Amino acid sequence: MAWITRFLAAVAFLAVGVIFSPETFGSNGDGSLKLSTYLKLAHLLSFSTAWGAALWVTFIGGIIMFKNLPRHQFGNLQSKMFPAYFSMVGICCAISMASFGYLHPWKSSSTAEKYQLGFLASALAFNLTNLLVFTPMTIEMMKQRHKVEREENIGEETGGSKNREVAKVNPKLAAMNKKFGMIHGLSSLANIMAFGSLAMHSWYLAGKLNL
Description:
Elements: H1 2-19, H2 31-68, H3 71-103, H4 111-151, H5 161-167, H6 171-208
Helix pairs in contact: 2-3, 2-6, 3-4, 4-6, 5-6
């Protein structure tokens, strides 16, 4: 029930923000303006959620977990977390792209706005590629490697030093490490490309702020 309480609290704060907005008090006009405001809100919330999640998972959370959790426990946790992570970021990117595209129709948008739509589409594409292609492959390869490592009585340590030592005398594990590294590297590259696309859009949004 804890997640429901947090969700309801977030909705309550959002409702308070809407209630006290200038549009609610009628200082700025018509229904089209209100629709525009709601679309901007959807875009901003979705983008910021995707950006924040990508920043945390890529540069903070994953590194902390890898350095402090037993390797197999870390891998099993990642196998549950990454499908949810890529799904959430993908949905947020889709909402951001749809709302931005509605606010800036392609035929009447500027070159800069078309580039921004492209960045959002790129972020969505890279996340979907990770969700549907690389993540399932990585998880399956991880399970196979864990099985071999358990036979060698390794995997409950933190870090990868024991894996590298055993791989020197175990060709099967060495081959698995190579294949896993390649798939994981492609997944990481797609994740970084998605993060970079969002970073480009954040610069555009910063230029539009009037503080």
